[in-house]
Amino acid sequence: xxxxxxxxxxxxETENATGAVLAAYFQVRxxxxxxxxxxxxxxxxxxxxKQGRLIGIEMLGPCSPQVIDEIAQQERTKKFVxxxxxxxxxxxx
Length: 93
Hints:
Layout: E1 9-14, E2 21-27, E3 35-39, E4 44-48, E5 54-59, H1 65-71, H2 75-84
Antiparallel strand pairs: 1-2, 2-5, 3-4, 4-5
């Protein structure tokens, strides 16, 4: 499967009783993850395909916008994540 085109999608997991956000996954393109890299002390993970292209970003806890900028090389990917991240997950220092 060729995974070069963008295919943006957001999945949010919440705690049933409170509605609190537990995790957010930002799919950037379709494809199979071949490598996972950890950021922000385990709060954020980035999935990459065999060619090293970003597949998606998983946020399990708060991180700074700079972490997203480090992961996302394409400007529209940065905007996609920044504009759709739950407020509690994307924080400034």
